Amino acid sequence: MKILAIAGSNSETSINKQLVSYAASLVENAEIETVDMNEFEMPIYKHQREVESGVPQEAKNFAAKIDAADVIFISLAEHNGTYSTAFKNVFDWTSRIKDRAVWNEKPMLLMATATGARGGLGVLEAATKRFPLHGGNIVETFTLPFFNDNFDKSSHKIVNEEKDNELKEKIQKISALESILS
């Protein structure tokens, strides 16, 4: 199974990148490609810019990574209750590729984490509503509140046993897709 692990943040110390990397590492015998949003920096989407210059190559490259994956694990950073600007811009440009649904119906584990009690629940709710309109096949969702208390940065693991078991159960459901995908 080829997993595309996306952290919806351009932060060099992204807690969502740490979470998505951990989640992907739990799938045995998987080929994992982790995406860095900084590789897809483009001008902010503007219709006039699209008309004049077309869709940037970076958006096409992002779409190609989605197409090459069997499953998408994505953990979204929450900025003011919704997506980070870095992620939203890549999403917007990718949505402009002709005859394409952004997520291309790939099975998806949609996650979020934050340092507060809601754990990125606002962005998770926004994505849960929006992604299916763009070909998102959300199989499971997961949120990790109080990241600094529930995730050990040195061992790169969730230390809250209840949340760790919850994530592992959801990943088992995703892993069961391997036989369907093969």
Question: What about the largest sheet?
Answer: 5 strands, parallel
First-to-last CA distance: 8 Å
Helix percentage range:
40-55%
Name the overall outline: globular
* Count of individual helical segments: 8
Q: Name the beta content range.
A: 15-25%
Gyration radius, in Å: 16 Å
**Order of strands, widest sheet:** 2-1-3-4-5
Q: What's the rounded overall pLDDT mean? A: 95
N to C succession of SSEs:
EHEHHEHEHEHEEHH
Summing up helix and strand content along with how strands pair, one would put the structural category as alpha/beta
Query: Total strand count, please?
Result: 7
Q: pLDDT below 50 for ≥5 consecutive residues: which ranges?
A: none
Describe the protein:
- The chain has 182 residues and is an alpha/beta fold.
- It is built from eight helices and seven strands.
- It has a five-stranded parallel sheet, sandwiched between helices. A two-stranded antiparallel sheet has the order 6-7.
- Helix 3 (57-68) packs across helix 4.
- The termini are close together.
- The model has no long low-confidence stretch (mean pLDDT 95).
